[in-house]
Design a protein that fits this description.
binds alpha-D-glucopyranuronic acid; alpha/beta; globular; ten-stranded mixed beta sheet; Rossmann fold; single chain
Length: 363
């Protein structure tokens, strides 16, 4: 048994590959069924249900930024007008697409600000490497607090009185899926190579987005920590008890109310298990004790059992937890831990883009 399996067993992490009826999942067909069970477990107990697709989506273009990135990039300010149950509401998105005669891969960046480039989004470095980036600010979809009447939240999901009502993370994930709806209509984008990326609470959101929407080929979770990539059992720093006290609105009411019972029935490996056979990319920062790099690494490596079902390698790692400045990029999933604090830096973007490029070129 390698050290990851030993660690998962020592922490008492339940296998994501035993079905609700107690059957061990071994084939792709069984995994297809298990995926539905895993999504249900996470929706009912942690993030809440995924709101339904809008009946209609209309994207309105506002004047873009002329000569953006020295004229190399087309940038547009977009308004995503969604119709749900006959009601129209909207949220803003900004696009930056490098001018190219070939289709380009893209990121959907769930961001903390609408005004990009910003300290978490080095737009010109991203587009210079040939990627488009579509970003939106999470609080333009709905406020990052317990106000479930704010903006889109007023129209999404069942009332908070229901134990499985959508939390804010699920609503932000829903918005990222609408951006994908639009991307699929754009001839200049390679829709087969779209990544969803987010940092911290939005790293949790990026994972949930890709877990529930298989159109995303890459799930990029930066410093997502508790209730993101990090395994909860045996985690140091932030715990599920703590996060549900401070940020109950990110989740469904049941995550807080039945925390003790819930912690017995699943862990974050149920979330990372939903990414294969697509690519899971997890980033940590050495000084980010609150997120706990070791537990984030474990959450990433735990998906290897699922990659195995698809005959894939998953994460290629050594004999112990990786030290700072390690990049594990030789498998089908990716992990890196950089020096320094909690942040989404250019260094993070660059290693993620290196890995995605390597997968696109078939390495
Ligand atoms: C808090 C929270 C974390 C979260 C972070 C962030 O620190 O406890 O879970 O990831 O905020 O989103 O910045």
């Amino acid at each position: 048994m390698d050290f990851v399996s030993t660690e998962l067993e020592r922490r008492g992490v339940p296998s994501a590959l035993v079905s609700n009826r107690g059957i061990e999942v071994k084939t792709e067909k069984q995994m297809q069924k298990r995926r539905e069970e895993l999504k249900k477990i996470l929706a009912e107990n942690e993030y809440g249900t995924l709101p339904s697709r809008p009946e209609h989506l209309r994207v309105e273009k506002k004047p873009g930024i002329p000569n953006f990135c020295a004229g190399k990039v087309t940038s547009e300010s977009l308004d995503f007008v969604c119709t749900v149950d006959g009601v129209e509401f909207s949220f803003p998105v900004r696009s930056a697409i490098p001018k190219s005669d070939k289709k380009v891969p893209a990121f959907v960046h769930i961001n903390f600000s609408a005004n990009t480039p910003d300290h978490f989004q080095p737009t010109e470095e991203i587009t210079d490497r040939g990627f488009a980036v579509f970003s939106f600010c999470h609080s333009d979809v709905t406020a990052d607090n317990g106000d479930f009447k704010d903006k889109c939240a007023a129209y999404l999901g069942p009332s908070r009185r229901k134990k499985n009502a959508s939390g804010k993370i699920m609503m932000w994930a829903w918005a990222a899926m609408r951006v994908m709806d639009y991307i699929e209509t754009l001839p200049e984008i390679d829709a087969e190579n779209v990544a969803v990326i987010g940092h911290s609470r939005l790293g949790k959101t990026a994972l949930v987005t890709a877990a529930f929407d298989e159109r995303f080929k890459y799930a990029v979770s930066n410093d997502s920590g508790c209730s993101g990539a990090a395994i909860s059992r045996g985690k140091t720093g932030e715990s599920t008890e703590r996060i549900t006290q401070s940020f109950p609105f990110w989740f469904c009411p049941r995550y807080k109310d039945d925390a003790e019972a819930q912690s017995k029935c699943f862990d974050q490996n149920y979330l990372t298990a939903l990414i294969p056979p697509r690519h899971l990319l997890v980033g940590s920062a050495e000084d980010d004790a609150w997120a706990d790099p070791k537990s984030e690494f474990l959450g990433c490596a735990s998906a290897n059992s699922v990659y195995g079902i698809y005959g894939m390698k998953g994460l290629v790692y050594g004999e112990d937890y990786p030290e700072a400045k390690t990049v594990l990029a030789d498998g089908d999933s990716f992990y890196h831990v950089r020096k320094g604090p909690h942040f989404l830096s250019r260094e993070d973007w660059n290693v993620y883009m290196d890995f995605i490029e390597s997968k696109m070129s078939g390495r």
